[in-house]
Predict the 3D structure of the following.
Amino acid sequence: MLKYDSIQELIEAAESAGKPISEIALDDQAEQMGQDAAMLFRQMDKNFSVMREAIDFGQQEDQRSMSGLTGGEGYRMKQYSVRRAGGLSGMFLTRAMSRALAVAGCNASMGKIVAAPTAGSCGILPGCLVSLYEDREFPREAVVQSMFTAGAFGMVIANKASIAGAQGGCQAECGSAAGMAAAALAEIMGGTPQQCGDACAIALVNQMGLVCDPVAGLVEIPCIKRNVAGVMTAFSSADMALAGIRPHIPVDECIEAMREVGDALPAALKETAIGGLAGTETGKALRKKAFGEEKN
C-alpha cells in the first residue's frame, strides 16, 4: 500500500511535512486505498482492542497451548510482578512481559491475535503499547496512531528483507517486531521521525542473527519467551534513541544487513525444526511428547 522503498524516505517525508510518521503513513494509505482516513483509524483501533482481548485470554491461570507443552506463562509473570513488587525489572516492565507472554500464549492456544507482523512475534507490539495505555495512561488515540508508524516500518522491512522466520530466521519475526515497536514507542514519547528510525535500527541490531528453531515445529518453545526479549529490546532501543544515542549504521542499511544474515543462515535454522534448540535431546523428546514416536 505504501509507496516508500526505505525508512529514510518516510523520515524525510515526515520532516518535510512537519508531521509524525504515523500521519504520513495514514494519509498515504487512505489515498492509495481510496478510503477515509478516519475509517482506517477505526479499523486500527479495533486491532488494538483485539490485542487487549488476547492479553486477557493469555493471562488466565488455566491457559494451555493446543500441544500441552506450554501455558500459563502470562498468568505466572503477572502474579510474580505483584508478589515480588516488580521483581528485578520493576512493575512496569514485568507487567509488559506478562502481556507479551499472554498474547503469545493466546496464539499457541489458537486464540485470536493480531499478527504484528507475524503470529510468532505477536506479543511484542501489544506488550509495549498496551502497557503504555494501561499502566502509563497514555491517550488511546496516540497509542493507536503510533501503530501506523509501526505498520509502515514493518512494510518497508518486509519489502527490503523479510518478516518470515522460514526465510530470514527469528530476527525477521521478533527482530522486525521489536524494531516496529521501538519506532512506535519513540513517536508516542514525542521523538522526532529520525529518532523513530534510530530506535528501529538499534532494535534490529540487537536482534540480528536470531535463528528460528521452534521445538517440535510449534510456535511455542522458545518463541513465546522470545516475545519478552523483543519487548525489552524495544523499550531499551526507544530510550536510547530518545536520549540522542545514534545507531551509527543507518536503519535501511541495518535492514539490508538483516537480509544478508538471513540469507546466510542454513535451512536447519529457518523454521525447519531441525537445528538449534529443536535439535537438542530435550527438544526431540518434547517433539515425541507432542506428536508421539515418528514412523519411518
In short: The chain has a mean pLDDT of 97. Residues 179 and 248 are 16 Å apart (CA to CA).
